[in-house]
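Ticket reopened. Same input as before:
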Amino acid sequence: MVGAACALYASRAGLRTVLVERGPVAGGTTGAGEGNLLVSDKEPGPELQLALLSLRLWRELAAEPGGFGAAVEYRAKGGLVVAAHPSDLDALSAFAGKQRSAGVETGLLAASQLADLEPHLAPGLAGGVHYPEDSQVMPALAAAHCVRQARRYGTELRTGTAVTSILRDPGGRVRGVRTDKGDIHAPAVVNAAGVRGGDLAALAGVRLPVRPRRGFVLVTEPLPPRVVRHKVYAADYVADVASDSAALQTSPVVEATDAGPVLIGASRERVGFDRTFSLSVTQVLAERAIALFPVLGRVSAIRAYLGFRPYLPDHLPAIGPDPRAPGLFHACGHEGAGIGLATGTGQLIAQALTGATPDLDLAPFRPDRFPASEEGAR
Amino acid sequence: MTSPTNRLAVVGAGPAGLAAALTAAHHNIAVTLIDSAPQPGGQFYRQPAAALGARRPQALHHAWRTWARLRDRLDAHVAAGRIRHLPGRHVWFVELLDRGFILRTLTADDEPEVFAADAVLLATGAYEKVLPFPGWTLPGVVTAGGAQAMLKGGLVLPGRMAVVAGSGPLLLPVATGLAAAGARLAALIEAADPRAYGRHARTLAAHPGKLAEAAGYAGRLLRHRVPVLTRHTVVAAHGTDRVEAVTVAALDADGRARPKTERRIACDTLAVGHGLLPHTDLAGALGCRTDPARVVVDAQQRTDVPGVWAAGEAAGVGGAALALAEGEIAGRSVVAHLTGERPRIRSTAATSRTALRKFAAALDAVHTPPAHWAEQVADDTLVCRCEDVTAGAVRHAVTELGAADLRTVKLLTRAGMGWCQGRVCGPGVAGVAGCPPETVRRPFARPVPLSVLARTPSPTEGRQE
Ligand SMILES: Cc1cc2nc3c(=O)[nH]c(=O)nc-3n(C[C@H](O)[C@H](O)[C@H](O)COP(=O)(O)OP(=O)(O)OC[C@H]3O[C@@H](n4cnc5c(N)ncnc54)[C@H](O)[C@@H]3O)c2cc1C
Ligand SMILES: Cc1cc2nc3c(=O)[nH]c(=O)nc-3n(C[C@H](O)[C@H](O)[C@H](O)COP(=O)(O)OP(=O)(O)OC[C@H]3O[C@@H](n4cnc5c(N)ncnc54)[C@H](O)[C@@H]3O)c2cc1C
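Engineering reply: fixed in the latest deploy. New output:
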């Protein structure tokens, strides 16, 4: 997703762009996640700023003539965060207050108002916050249609082509990439390799500690429209995202898709690239979803899938030029928000590549903000 | 509710599962035999006597004797308490724990149960491979197995005008069965070239019984005056409310429909079969290696996951006799594993397995779908019925959107995302997209209600929050 967005904004900025992908389009984490475009789960700070920028760009893209919005199943349906207990609600409203000061639209809801927004919610919840800006896209379609648009602006797409090394001149400047299908010369290389971003950085001799964080998503049979209307999740989600614990944390967002199935996800675990299916994780997802929407108890799960979020130790992506390898730019490590944050990232990268003033300060996203070695990290 | 540990759990009560269960029970292993069907026998022995008899009196004699023996032995072991036979339960998940396995089942009305075991044999059989063509979704178009089910249920109305088409050994019994049930057979359309058998003459000649069986079918087809067209294929079915006719064409040496050979055949029933695909979902979720469409096993039918065996069509399509041989071998291997003794594989079972596998491979080599069948699929033909995806949408995903494998085609079109999870449409979508078939991981062998999933006790992992 991120590479697609970078190619889109770079080629729109007039740059000759080649998009190199070892697999097919959307074959990485993008094809194994969900497409929530959320501000609701972000505390004030650089990530929230990036999310607000990105949401604006998603809105603009979706409104472009040519049906991009419909093609990527863009829905500005809004999010609803609920609190089970009065104490949770206090914490949630305090959090929402800070978000409001940072420019997020929020609407505090009393217990009695929840049913107006979501008639099938469990009774007895303490209240919630409505986030009208929260939206969704179908991530694989979003990536594919960004690539398609980028090609209209001249981007050359090379799928089935793996980068095997990064070419540098004697002075250390990056001058292109070597692939298994030949060299590509370019004065700038953008690393949008997702969960493999660390490997790509290593090819240029620099360290970028991108690691996988596994997530499972449960998919139900198709439901009639409007059983679940918003993106709904419980307030403890917010704590999970910023968590440093390696233990399993399950914080399912419940959302309906255009095609009818409801997605319940996702879990968060640090288990490396382990693809073993875990029944107990999906059990917890099911349990928590039913706690929010008791009607889901009678609905069947038809499948579950897993993906690996690319995360960096401080949970912020790496975006921008790498002073350690002139000519190398990074756009990876977006963890559980890479779909949402892709448009802003693409825009910032295009601005950095063309020397324009970036819409946001890139300092918090500096790729060289981590220690140079694993030892230094401890 | 968790039952006391039963040492071997067998999933599937077809020939393979029965043979294994009987072998293990004979050696005093406690067996739990779980099967989704209401009756034991699997796909083969489930056929009622009447239907089998109609199609193959002499073969029936042999098959029925074998079945009667299996059935008696099953009854005896059940009575003696050595086999617990649990029909009408679908295993939706097998969980591998530190010590042993947990099998999770659902009845037809979604009642969950849980069974523990020290060893698991997957004998889940196969299902039919479906390939799309213009008109394949019309009422009256059924799979070859679907036609057998109609026969079994006595649903074949005498006077129906049927065409049987596709490729493979299943077409002959279906055609003769339909004829015997009173349908008129307009044609039998087989894609393979009978001359291709010549290349496998030695393997085939080693199986006089099977050849005699095939000859018996062919003889009866002649008697029913059924026109048989080999090296032909159905390129389209026509009709509005129901199939009214099919267009068939001759195939050239490359497997393409030859221009100007098309002809129309009136019919109101079309049974199409392209062979079988093993059920591998449970194995996949357990982490067993699959290749891409069958569970990979060693000489003792062991998978690469310790404690898990596979036998019968789940480990490769090859017919009921092969399933019996593999089931017996698996059963003996399980016995050895659970008792700590050396496995005593009967050499007759091993020899017959080798020969039958060769025979199956020869049949498989002869009976392949026409190489270029996907070219016949028009852009407006549905390829995925659950999600209403056309062939045109699949092609668009490949040429315009950058999909390059079954997974990204699915993501960009939804083909295979619906109720069947690609079990039905997978081969068709892959063919139209021009990508190789691949192992699709389906963690649940059937849809499971969220309330059941949520109540699923997790003996080992627990919650780590
Ligand atoms: C279960 C789950 C749920 C999620 N839910 C959401 C959500 O609701 N909202 C949201 O915004 N985000 C969500 N995410 C996160 C989001 O999916 C990711 O942040 C995002 O997809 C990352 O995109 P990417 O382009 O960086 O990585 P990828 O999609 O992995 O793309 C990187 C690409 O680089 C290619 N590549 C790697 N190495 C090379 C090489 N050497 N040569 C050539 N190509 C190479 C890979 O093949 C891959 O296709 C979720 C993730 C998971 C796992
Ligand atoms: C539609 C069809 C028609 C056929 N017609 C003929 C024919 O006319 N002549 C011929 O010679 N051969 C025929 N065959 C082939 C023949 O049936 C097989 O060779 C033979 O039955 C294979 O035995 P098996 O034990 O491997 O599997 P099967 O006999 O298929 O038995 C597998 C059993 O496992 C059960 N099962 C599967 N998954 C689960 C699960 N998750 N939980 C619980 N139970 C499960 C199934 O319901 C079934 O009872 C046909 C096969 C099929 C699929």
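The radius of gyration of chain B is 23 Å. DSSP finds 15 helices and 20 strands in chain B. Please confirm and we'll close it.
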